[in-house]
Specification:
The chain has one helix and no strands. With 42 residues, it is mainly α. The mean pLDDT is 79.
Length: 42
């Protein structure tokens, strides 16, 4: 994938967006894990 002048965002923004997406995915998994632990009575 090439990042030229026609790209919607620069490579730096892509890295930042990837970090944010990963962060939210991790938080989502963490929330689900907490629910499962609570359900088990742990």
């Amino acid at each position: 994938m090439t990042f030229g002048t026609h790209a919607p965002f620069h490579l730096k923004d892509a890295k930042w967006a990837f970090k944010v997406t990963t962060f939210f995915q991790t938080m989502e998994i963490f929330r689900v894990d907490q629910k499962q632990v609570r359900r088990r009575g742990g």
